[in-house]
Amino acid sequence: MSWIQKLYETYEQCKGYEPPGAARLMPISHTPQQAHIEITLDADGNFKGARIVQKEETIIPATEQSAGRVGIKPPPHPLCDKVQYCANDYLAFGGKKPSFFKEYERLLSEWCDSEFGHIKAKAVLAYVRKRSLVSDLVKEKILHLGTDGKLLTRWDGEAETPDIFRLLTAKDGEREQGDAFIRWHVRENGNPCTAVWDDPSLQNAWGLFDASTKELKGMCMVTGDTIASLTLNHPKRIRHPGDGAKLISANDSTGYTFRGRFTDDTGQQACGVSYAVTQKAHNALRWLIGRQAYRSGDLVIVTWSTAGKPVPNPFKDSLSLILGIEGPTHKSTEIEQPDVGDIGQAFAIRLRKAIAGYSAKLNPTDDVVVMGLDSATPGRMAITFYRELKGSDFLDRVQNWHEQYAWLQNFGKDSKFIGAPAPRDITEAAYGRRLDDSLRKSTVERMLPCIIDGQAPPRDLVESVIRRTSNRVSFEKDKNGRQWEWEKILGIACGLFKGSYKERGYQMTLENDRTSRDYLYGRLLSIAEHI
């Protein structure tokens, strides 16, 4: 359970201290959701307008059950939800799915009637009870009816396809308008914040109400609290708002897939985690993934300091590390190279300065975590890689990687530098640019222990890069006769070969005292290259 403890510690140390302009950590009892429709009300619950939103991520209040809802009767969210939940007139307009309005209204009413009720929530409750949501959206041309007065499931008209049909996901060629997700604006006197998802007072009110409903008590194995409010459902939507995979999956009391030696009826003896801890840990993980994760298909790898301090990204090449460049592209720049001597010296000095910059902010004893996540099925997620290191150890290993595998890299006429390539570039050098996602993902995973643990690169990977580099005629030339892709993987191959045989002590300079046959033939080839 150390991963969840580290994420919990990260949330506690970073909440309220997020960098200006950056995404903020999500409050507990909330979940991210992609919204399709935005409805504006006044404080009395009167309809004022509606518009389509382009799948914008919205932070909405959620219960423990609704945050991870699955099955044929998914429980409602308390405020923002789909049309089939919020609209009392959904079935009257021919909705194809079951209506969950009664459950939605009951939950929202309980919140509004409690001491933690909020004026915006009360306005929404007053409006949805008017039985006019679908008709109002039809009048605003947000939802669309057929000639029979029922909600359309496909658009066959000659006019341009309405936005709602482009946003909804098709199933068997049909798009159910009842799946459209609604968020609310409420114009409240004296409060310039009309968006319910941006109002801190509403978020706090819901959090207090949700906490008051927790009944299951027990020992939290993360904090050691013996009377914590335990959870049976853990959040999903970890990597993105549409992600249905969970890191912790809870079984119910029937249909056991595993019968352990437990004496209680709830199964909490197997793994007791408090609601607040799992919420904070998953919120911290979402926040970290959104800010600084490496992605390759479903694979996500995130590196962070639990103190919230900046750490170097192990998936960047040396140029990005030195210049602090974020993203996959390189700015037009070159690291100056001396005319004589070991050109690796200038690079080593700049690399050490860059690492020293991180060391000045990251204490040697600060915890750094590297965590890889992947899912083989839509509902189950696994931790494929996990390492905890002290700050000094992590920086040393990153520095060793960039020093040992450094060579002159030519990534184009505007990007030439001395350093180690990124794992993604190594993957493309070994298998070409047109490789499938699964091969790219698995190769990047194989490279991760080389950077974090100091292991040697897989021999087959190194040999694959060398074989492709040796077959120069297979690379296309541009109109000027240059083979940019070959020149790029040549530097990558040299860096990998140098690091894989570090006992030979290859240097980035002319070694007059090295008289091995392969080295001397290489010198002859280099002369022939420039004749």
Stretches where pLDDT is under 50 for at least 5 consecutive residues are 325-333
Count of distinct structural domains:
2
Strand proportion: 15-25%
| Broad shape | elongated
In round numbers, the mean pLDDT is 88
Main sheet: strands, sense, barrel: 4 strands, antiparallel
Q: Number of DSSP helices?
A: 17
Element-level helix/strand string: HEEHHHHHHEHEEHEEHEHEEHEEHHHHH
Key features of this structure:
about 525 residues; four-stranded antiparallel β-sheet; about 15% strand; 12 strands; single chain; 17 helices; about 35% helix; alpha+beta
Could you please describe the fold and organization of this structure?
The protein has 531 residues and is of the alpha+beta class. It has 2 domains: 26-213, no CATH class; 294-530, no CATH class. Helix content is 36%, strand content 15%. The chain has helices spanning 2-14, 64-67, 83-86, 101-113, 119-128, 133-139, 163-167, 200-212, 275-292, 318-323, 344-361, 391-404, 423-431, 437-452, 459-470, 484-500, 517-530; strands at 30-42, 47-61, 182-187, 217-218, 228-229, 294-296, 299-305, 333-334, 367-377, 380-390, 407-410, 415-419. A 4-stranded antiparallel beta sheet has the order 6-7-9-10, sandwiched between helices. β9 and β10 form a beta hairpin. α13 (423-431) packs across α14 (437-452) and α13 packs across α16. The chain is elongated.
